[in-house]
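TASK: fixed-backbone design
INPUT:
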């Protein structure tokens, strides 16, 4: 009776294999679930750290409003930013024109809103170019070392030795003033700080276990840099980028103020400052409005950068 009711050896093997397969699938699902939970918890932890810094949240809200204004400028601006009304030349703030009119009668509020487009395009566009160049050069120098590191480090040091504004003025004069050229020129001259930070990070990462394991199985250097090293060195880059966008907006405003950046009649905060310089005594509101726009925007980016620095600090585990 016992022999007839006991399962056969083949059936036992099939049952064992099925159990092992089910256990493996369950283990895989558990690992995927744990990885997803860990990613979510990391995002939540970073956001909670950032949210604890109230000035950073205020700066983020301000930048969100600024982005909305820039994207919806044709619908938000009360007037055409280039429409001239000589009868309102130099008029101060009023119910119809909240920030007043400039020296030729254009509505300042409308030009401030359209100028936000230029500020964000230059700030974000130049930062993306600088990050791309800086991360590429810094990762290459730090990973390969030797002569590659020596010569690339000399290039970085040489670029950082030049007075930045004088270099930008020279390049803008050579290539001509325009929005595209301003973005390219600034992006191609401010990447050295990113390269230096990434190089230092890569020097400490290239001897880690997962990089050595990737080398041992024949992964190419390009793949190791792109997949294993750069993602782990990107944290400081994000912080520097968020802090430097405000500085780039100031550089663009300085070039436009000197006539080497965005050209009239395009609405730019720098050109608006330049226009108001000659009338600062009679019509001070012409220069005050774009000056405050630049100051608040730069301050907002700096506050967000400070918040990100605290949120991404690996020493803070709260």
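OUTPUT:
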């Amino acid at each position: 009776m016992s022999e007839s009711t006991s399962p056969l050896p083949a059936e036992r093997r099939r049952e064992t294999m099925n159990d092992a397969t089910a256990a493996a699938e369950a283990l895989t699902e558990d690992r995927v679930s744990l990885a997803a939970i860990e990613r979510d918890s990391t995002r939540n932890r970073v956001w909670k750290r950032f949210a604890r810094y109230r000035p950073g949240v205020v700066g983020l809200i301000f930048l969100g409003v600024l982005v909305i204004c820039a994207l919806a400028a044709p619908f938000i601006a009360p007037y055409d930013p280039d429409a001239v009304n000589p009868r309102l030349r130099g008029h101060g703030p009023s119910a119809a024109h909240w920030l007043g009119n400039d020296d030729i009668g254009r509505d300042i509020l409308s030009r401030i809103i359209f100028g936000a487009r230029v500020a964000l395009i230059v700030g974000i566009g130049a930062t993306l170019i600088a990050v791309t160049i800086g991360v590429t050069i810094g990762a290459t120098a730090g990973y390969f070392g030797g002569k590659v590191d020596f010569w690339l480090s000399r290039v970085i040091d040489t670029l950082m030795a030049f007075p930045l504004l004088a270099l930008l003025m020279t390049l803008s004069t050579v290539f001509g003033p325009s929005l595209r050229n301003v973005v390219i020129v600034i992006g191609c001259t401010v990447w050295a700080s990113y390269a230096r930070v990434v190089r230092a990070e890569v020097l400490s990462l290239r001897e880690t276990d997962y990089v050595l394991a990737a080398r041992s199985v024949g992964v190419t250097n390009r793949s190791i840099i792109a997949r294993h090293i750069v993602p782990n060195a990107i944290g400081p880059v994000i912080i520097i980028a968020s802090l430097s966008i405000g500085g780039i907006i100031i550089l663009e405003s300085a070039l436009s103020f000197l006539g080497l950046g965005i050209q009239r009649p395009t609405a730019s905060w720098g050109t608006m400052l330049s226009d108001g310089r000659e009338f600062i005594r009679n019509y001070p509101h012409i220069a005050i409005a774009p000056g405050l726009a630049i100051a608040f925007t730069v301050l907002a980016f700096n506050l967000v950068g400070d918040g990100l620095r605290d949120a991404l600090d690996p020493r803070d585990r709260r």
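COMMENT: Residues 1-7, 27-36 have pLDDT under 50 and may be disordered.
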